[in-house]
Design brief:
Immunoglobulin-like; mainly beta; about 750 residues; 5 helices
């Protein structure tokens, strides 16, 4: 026994048989003998193992049991022996079938494929719409239930499902409400049935059949129409066929549908206007002159064709409008002009000349395009000047333009077929504004196989120039040839014919790449030129490295890249060395400048602190002494030498003054810091001293006698008598130092 939802592929049981023979005589095969239907039979058996499995789905509601014969046979060579046995399989039902909802309509109503048709205005008072029956094909007993859902939002009826006397049978009723097709054209109901496990849905659509229960209506009453006076119209004998004479239409609106909405129209009798009874079209039967008839009022009616014949009356008011009696006239009805394609857009192409015999506003002309051809043009409505919105292009598909200009005055516009107009034909003239171009980019990269036979012609260049005539005629000029390999005949290797055919004069037997620069010119004025580059690669189809243009180009690019890499490294090295050299030069210049600034600073400081004018130095001893002891003389500065163990310092003040600008000789009062009388390097008077000897001595020190002091001075004068530098002009010994006159010009300032 199998449940009907047993998965496909499930192994059900194993048939086992035994054979006492050996070898092939004992080898057993299993098979199913004559299954009921091979296409729908759900079981298969493994011929070797005897395993029976399920290979298609089971359905209890279709087949509830299976009985079939299984045969076990050996593989004897002389005769195959077999044994048969019967196998019975029963299918167990499960709850897998949803509830079936069956709807049987009321005989009063039409029904077709879940659609119920009911006449509108049908009385509703617990109206029976149909009968519902629930069917469950499963054998398992379950409780069935049904519910109703109304899918429409604005429903005008109440619906209910009630139980009947039979099991799982129900009645659908409409309890109350109205059926009005003009309010609600259809009603959508949904039934949901369930057996506590599975759910079914059944949708019922109710269509309301229309009845002629509404009369026609008009948008307004009275209906107003306007028509211009038609004194200038050419009226035909039967104007009903002339659509231009139509005044308007009567359109009675009927909320019914189909034949119930059809109307027939009638108009009271008159001599000017008639009506089409089927369409409601109002039309003129003779011209109207506003000066004679300005206002017409008639009565019309709409009558339903279906019973009951509803009748609706409406008042019609027709007002006749005045029009201009004269139309503008062009001085020339047709003009043809030629302009170059580069004609500016801010300049008028042509001005329309027209006149109107009317006066005032009726004689003021407005210019408008009726036909704008295929180009965007502008026209000045007042002056009649025509401009182009865009620049022309002779190479486009439009070379001629036909413009029709309507002429209207500022009076009431005449709308008829005799409306006046003029025509302008504009013809473009070509200028040389396009360069020659190579159409096919594939011709920029050409691959030639050196293994193939030599052919003189390489390619016929596909060149185009959109201009016409001489402006579009092309001249070819081979400018230069570049190659990665130097040939003695590079410049004569290729030849370019004036028809665009490129030839080669010699056969190439090696891998190489050529770049040809070709100048394309036209014969127009001004000359338009284009420089194109044609790359020709000679390769070897038997060598995969050089079997195509891209591979050859890549090969030479990589080769060039390696060369450029070494050039880059070399250039970078030179750049770094140059940079370091410049940095060194800058540092040296900065150091020199810094040293010069220090030198200049020391000179200025020394001049201010240690200078004394030659006039002050050559004064008498008493004057010098007086200046030394004075503290109020201008430009004086006290310089005190340090104390010495051998020569105690006396509290004397020495005078220093700046040099005079007239002389380069400076009088310097020099007081050595660490000089002593017993040192070897002593400075004393020289023969050039003019009366300065001991002029600054104010007395002998108290710690020594005059004789001892004189002896010390003598020792000091003996030392370094001839060792003074050449630039010292005067020298004078003092008790605490020396006064020296030096010539300072700055050339060897450090030494001095």
């Amino acid at each position: 026994s199998l449940p009907e939802n047993t998965p496909i592929g499930t192994e059900l049981l194993t048939i086992s048989a035994s054979d006492a023979d050996k070898g092939l005589n004992g080898l057993i095969h299993y098979s199913i003998i004559n299954p009921p239907s091979s296409s729908s039979f759900p079981f298969i058996i493994n011929s070797t193992t005897g395993v029976i499995s399920l290979h298609s789905s089971l359905d209890y509601e279709i087949t509830r049991s299976y009985r079939f014969l299984i045969r076990a046979s050996d593989s004897g060579l002389v005769q195959s022996l077999f044994t048969d046995t019967w196998l019975s399989i029963s299918i167990k039902d499960i709850n897998d079938c949803p509830v079936e909802i069956m709807f049987l309509p009321n005989r009063r109503f039409q029904y077709d494929n879940q659609k119920l048709f009911i006449y509108e205005n049908t009385e509703i008072n617990n109206l029976t719409l149909g009968y519902i029956r629930l069917v469950d094909r499963d054998s398992i007993e379950t409780k069935l239930s049904i519910s109703l859902i109304i899918l429409d939002k604005q429903i005008k009826q109440d619906y209910e499902i009630i139980s009947s006397n039979q099991l799982n049978s129900y009645i659908l009723i409409a309890k109350q409400g109205i059926f009005d097709r003009e309010i609600q054209t259809e009603i959508n109901l949904r039934f949901i049935a369930t057996d506590s496990l599975l759910t079914s849905i059944y949708d019922l659509k109710i269509y309301l059949i229309d009845l002629n229960d509404n009369p026609s209506e008009f948008l307004s009453n009275p209906l107003k129409f306007y028509i211009e006076e038609l004194a200038n119209y050419h009226m035909i004998k039967y104007p009903i066929e002339d659509y231009q004479l139509t005044i308007g239409y009567l359109n009675g609106i009927d909320h019914d549908e189909g034949e119930n909405a059809l109307n027939q129209y009638e108009l009271e009798s008159n001599e000017f206007i008639k009506i089409d009874s089927n369409t409601g079209r109002l039309y003129l039967i003779q011209p109207l002159d506003r000066e004679q008839i300005e206002y017409i009022q008639l009565t019309a009616r709409a009558i339903n064709l279906a019973e009951p014949k509803w009748i609706t009356d409406v008042q019609i008011q027709i007002q006749v409008l005045d029009v201009n009696d004269n139309i503008p006239q062009c001085l020339t009805s047709y003009n043809r002009i030629s302009i170059p394609e580069n004609f500016p857009i801010d300049k008028p192409i042509i001005k329309i000349n027209a006149s109107d015999p009317d006066n005032g506003l009726n004689g003021t002309i407005n210019y408008r395009f009726r036909t704008n051809s295929t180009w965007l043009f502008n026209i000045n409505n007042i002056t009649g000047e025509i401009y182009s919105k865009e620049l022309f292009d002779y190479e486009s598909e439009y070379k001629n333009f036909l413009l029709i200009i309507d002429l209207e005055d500022n009076g009431n516009i005449i709308k008829n077929k005799n409306k006046n107009s003029c025509q302008i034909e504009i013809i473009l003239e070509d200028i040389n504004d396009n360069r020659p171009e190579l159409i096919s980019n594939e011709q920029k990269k050409i691959f030639l196989d050196i293994n193939k036979s030599y052919e003189n012609e390489i390619v016929l260049l596909n060149i185009t120039d959109k201009d016409s005539e001489l402006n579009g005629k092309i001249k070819y000029n081979l400018q230069s040839i570049e190659s990665n390999i130097n040939f003695n005949y590079n410049q004569t290797l290729f030849y370019l014919n004036q028809n665009g055919s490129l030839f080669i004069t010699n056969k190439i037997n090696q891998i190489c790449l050529f770049k040809l620069h070709i100048l394309l010119e036209d014969y127009g004025y001004p000359i338009q030129q284009t420089l194109i580059e044609i790359n020709i690669a000679f390769g070897n189809s038997f060598d995969s490295r050089y079997s195509s243009f891209d591979k050859i180009e890549k090969f030479f690019q990589e080769k060039s890249l390696h060369t450029n890499y070494f050039v880059f490294i070399f250039g970078l090295t030179i750049l770094i060395i140059t940079f370091l050299f410049l940095i060194s030069i800058i540092i040296i210049c900065l150091l020199i400048r810094q040293q010069h600034q220090r030198h200049k600073t020391r000179i200025i400081a020394r001049n201010k602190l240690l200078c004394s004018s030659s006039q002050q130095l050559t004064t008498s001893d008493s004057t010098v002494t007086s200046n030394i002891t004075s503290t109020s003389i201008e430009h004086q500065q006290i310089i005190r030498p340090p104390c010495s163990n051998e020569r105690p310092f006396t509290n004397e003040r020495l005078s220093i003054n700046c040099s005079s600008p007239e002389s380069h000789t400076y009088k310097i009062l020099h007081v050595p810091i660490d000089i002593h009388y017993n040192e070897k390097d002593k400075i004393d008077n020289i023969s050039c001293d003019h009366g300065y000897h001991e002029s600054y001595q104010t007395g002998t020190p108290s710690s020594s006698s005059p004789e001892q002091y004189s002896s010390e001075n003598s020792i000091r004068r003996d030392y370094m008598f001839n060792q003074l530098p050449y630039f010292v002009t005067k020298c004078k010994s003092l008790s605490e130092g020396f006064i020296v006159e030096m010539n300072v010009d700055g050339s060897d300032e450090e030494t001095r």
